[in-house]
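In response to the reviewer comment on reproducibility (Comment 2.3), we provide here a single inverse folding case reported in full, input and output, so that an independent group could reproduce the run without further information from us. The C-alpha cells appear first.
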C-alpha cells in the first residue's frame, strides 16, 4: 500500500514545479514509509511513496514501460487480488512478465485493455497512468472506494493525490469552506457525499469511477454498480455460492511478502476471517497465525450493557483463539493516549472523524505495526449481509433520513445562529438522501420487505460503509499499515445484493444467512452472538479528559469553532456531559464523550487547515 501525487499541465512545461511535487509527496510519507520515487517530464510530474508488501525490488514506482513506440508511466496504491489470472492473460497476449509485482501486471493490463482494464480487476486500488504519446492521463478507483483518490483543476493544472493534505501543499491552492462544505461537515459528517470533500473545488474520484484527462478535457465514467435482478438460485445453491465467494476472497487476500495477521474481536465476522486465515496457514505450512484485539484500561470494571453493545469481547476472543490455536495479542489502550491521538486521527482523515472510534484504531494499528504490516478484518459484513440494528428497528426504517444520523434538528441547532439563518441542514440532508434512493432499482418481483431493505442496504453500502472504509484506510496508512477487507469483494456484494431479504435475514436474525452458513464451522456461541460493534472505552476518565479538552477550547472565545458553531449549545453539552445532544451524533457509538471529542476535532481541524469561510 502506498500514496502518490501528480501534476499535469497540457499547455506548458512544468519541470520547474518539481520542488512542489516533492513537498506534496512528503505529505504522504506515512502512507509509504519505505521508498519514494519521481517521474518528471515536460507536462507531467508524478511522485510515489511506497509501503513494501509484494516484491520489494520489482515493485518500485513510478514504473515506466515502453510498448509499440509509446511510453506509459504508472503510480498506484492498492493490491490486485486476481494478479495470477491477469498474468496468464498477458502472457497469452505476448507480454513478458519480469517481476512478481502487481504494479507491472496492472500497467501492462492497461496497455492491453485500455479503459476496459477496470472491468478486469478484483482488488483495492487507486492508480494513475500517463500515456506519453497521446498526452492522456487515466485515473481509476476500486469498486467500493477502499483506496482514496482526490483531484483539483487549478490554472490549467490537473493535480491529484491519495490524500487531501498533499493537495493542500500546492502553493496556489487556498483551502475554502463554503456552504456545501459546512453542510457536508455538520449535516452529513463524519460521512461525506461520494465525490465531494469539505473543501471547495477539491473532489474525490468516486468509487467505481475512472477519469480520462487530455486535451479534450475531463471525462468521468462509472464502470460498475449494483444491478438488481431476480435471485433464481435455490437455498442450497445460495449457501454454496456465498461460502465459495467468501472463502475465495479471504484466501486471495492472504498473499503477502511481509508479516500478516488478523484482527479478532470474537464477533461473527472477524471469527470467519480468522478461521479461513488459520486454515490457510496450516495448508501452506506457514507459521501459526497471529491475531490481535484491542481493549481499554479498566473497561472490564466500567462496561455498561446496551442494546447496541450487549456484551464485551474477551470471552469470545479466548474461545476462538483456543479453537484455532492462534498466537493472540491484546493491545491495551489508556485514556490519555486515546484523547491525545484525536488530533492525529483528524489529520489522518483530513476531516473531523469518528472521534475515539478513529483514534483507538489509529493507536491499535500503531501497536501492531512493529510485528506485522498487513491485517485482514471483518469490516463490511454488516453492510453486505444486513447486520446493523437499523435494518430491523421501525423507528430507524421510518425516520425518513440516514438511520445512523437521525439527529437532524440537533445538528442544525449546533450551527452558529448567524450561519443557521443561511444554511438549512435538513434540506441538504434530505436532498442527498433522496438523491441516493433514486439510484435504487426495485424489481416487480421484490417482496415489500425486500424492496424496503434494498433501499436501506443501498444507503448503508454507499454511505455508512464508505465512512468505515475511509476510517480503516486512513488510520492504518497513517502508520504504514495495510488493512484488507475481504467481505468487501465486489463479487460477493453483487451476489448477496439480490438475495431476498427473507433469506438474508434467515430466522429473523441480523446476518441470518451468514450465521446459517457458518453453523458447522464455528462454535455456536460465536454463531449465535448478537452483533457487537467495534469496542469503545467505558472508562469514565475518558469523559473527563475530553470534557477538559473541550472546556479549555471554549474558554477562548476567539477559538475558531465559535465562528461556525453555537457557543451556547456547546456549553450546554459540556454542562450535561453531552446529554443536551439527545441522540448519538453518528452510528451507535458517538454519544456524549464521542460528541465532545468530535467538537474538539472540529476546532483542531479549523486551526490546522485554516480554511477561508465563504458563505
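Designed residues, in position order:
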Amino acid at each position: 500500500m502506498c500514496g502518490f501525487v501528480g501534476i499535469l499541465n497540457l499547455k506548458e512545461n512544468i519541470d520547474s514545479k518539481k520542488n512542489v511535487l516533492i513537498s506534496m509527496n512528503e505529505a504522504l510519507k506515512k502512507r509509504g514509509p519505505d521508498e519514494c520515487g519521481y517521474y518528471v517530464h515536460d507536462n507531467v510530474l508524478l511522485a510515489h511513496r511506497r509501503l513494501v508488501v509484494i516484491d520489494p525490488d520489482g515493485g518500485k514506482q513510478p514504473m515506466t514501460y515502453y510498448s509499440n513506440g509509446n511510453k506509459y508511466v504508472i503510480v498506484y496504491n492498492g493490491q490486485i487480488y486476481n494478479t495470477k489470472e491477469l498474468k496468464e492473460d498477458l502472457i497469452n497476449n505476448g507480454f513478458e512478465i519480469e517481476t512478481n509485482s502487481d504494479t507491472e501486471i496492472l500497467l501492462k493490463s492497461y496497455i492491453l485493455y485500455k479503459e476496459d482494464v477496470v472491468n478486469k480487476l478484483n482488488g483495492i486500488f487507486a492508480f494513475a497512468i500517463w500515456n506519453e504519446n497521446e498526452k492522456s492521463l487515466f485515473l481509476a478507483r476500486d469498486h467500493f472506494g477502499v483506496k482514496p483518490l482526490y483531484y483539483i483543476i487549478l490554472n490549467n493544472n490537473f493535480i491529484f493525490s491519495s490524500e487531501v493534505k498533499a493537495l493542500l501543499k500546492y502553493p496556489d491552492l487556498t483551502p475554502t469552506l463554503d456552504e456545501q462544505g459546512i453542510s457536508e461537515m455538520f449535516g452529513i459528517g463524519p460521512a461525506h457525499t461520494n465525490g465531494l470533500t469539505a473543501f471547495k473545488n477539491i473532489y474525490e474520484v468516486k468509487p467505481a469511477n475512472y477519469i480520462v484527462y487530455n486535451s479534450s478535457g475531463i471525462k468521468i465514467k462509472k464502470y460498475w454498480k449494483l444491478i438488481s435482478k431476480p435471485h433464481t438460485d435455490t437455498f442450497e445453491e445460495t449457501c454454496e455460492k456465498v461460502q465459495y465467494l467468501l472463502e475465495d476472497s479471504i484466501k486471495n487476500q492472504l498473499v503477502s511478502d511481509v508479516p500478516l495477521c488478523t484482527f479478532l474481536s470474537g464477533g461473527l465476522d472477524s471469527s470467519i476471517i480468522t478461521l479461513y486465515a488459520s486454515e490457510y496457514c496450516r495448508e501452506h505450512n506457514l507459521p501459526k497465525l497471529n491475531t490481535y484485539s484491542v481493549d481499554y484500561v479498566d473497561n472490564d470494571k466500567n462496561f455498561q450493557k446496551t442494546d447496541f453493545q450487549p456484551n464485551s469481547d474477551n470471552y469470545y476472543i479466548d474461545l476462538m483463539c483456543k479453537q484455532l490455536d492462534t498466537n493472540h495479542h491484546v493491545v491495551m489502550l489508556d485514556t490519555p493516549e486515546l484523547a491525545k491521538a484525536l488530533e492525529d486521527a483528524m489529520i489522518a482523515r483530513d476531516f473531523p472523524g469518528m472521534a475515539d472510534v478513529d483514534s483507538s484504531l489509529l493507536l491499535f494499528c500503531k501497536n501492531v505495526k512493529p510485528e506485522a504490516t498487513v491485517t485482514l478484518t471483518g469490516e463490511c459484513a454488516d453492510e453486505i449481509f444486513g447486520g446493523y440494528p437499523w435494518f430491523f428497528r421501525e423507528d430507524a426504517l421510518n425516520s425518513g433520513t440516514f438511520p445512523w444520523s437521525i439527529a437532524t434538528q440537533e445538528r442544525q441547532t449546533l450551527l452558529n445562529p448567524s450561519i443557521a439563518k443561511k444554511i438549512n441542514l435538513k434540506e441538504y440532508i434530505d436532498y442527498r438522501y433522496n438523491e441516493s434512493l433514486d439510484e435504487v432499482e426495485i424489481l416487480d418481483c421484490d417482496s415489500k420487505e425486500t424492496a424496503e431493505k434494498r433501499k436501506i442496504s443501498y444507503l448503508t453500502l454507499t454511505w455508512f460503509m464508505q465512512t468505515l472504509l475511509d476510517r480503516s484506510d486512513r488510520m492504518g496508512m497513517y502508520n504504514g499499515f495495510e488493512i484488507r477487507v475481504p467481505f468487501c469483494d465486489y463479487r460477493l456484494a453483487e451476489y448477496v445484493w439480490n438475495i431476498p431479504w427473507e433469506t438474508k435475514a434467515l430466522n429473523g436474525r441480523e446476518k441470518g444467512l451468514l450465521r446459517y452458513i457458518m453453523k458447522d464451522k464455528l462454535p455456536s456461541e460465536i454463531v449465535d452472538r448478537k452483533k457487537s460493534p467495534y469496542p469503545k472505552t467505558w472508562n469514565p476518565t475518558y469523559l473527563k479528559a475530553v470534557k477538559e479538552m473541550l472546556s479549555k477550547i471554549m474558554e477562548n472565545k476567539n477559538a475558531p469553532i465559535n465562528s461556525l458553531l453555537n457557543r451556547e449549545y456547546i456549553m450546554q453539552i459540556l454542562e450535561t456531559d453531552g446529554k443536551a445532544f439527545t441522540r448519538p451524533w453518528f452510528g451507535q457509538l458517538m454519544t456524549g464523550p464521542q460528541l465532545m471529542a468530535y467538537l474538539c476535532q472540529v476546532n483542531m481541524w479549523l486551526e490546522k487547515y485554516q480554511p477561508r469561510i465563504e458563505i
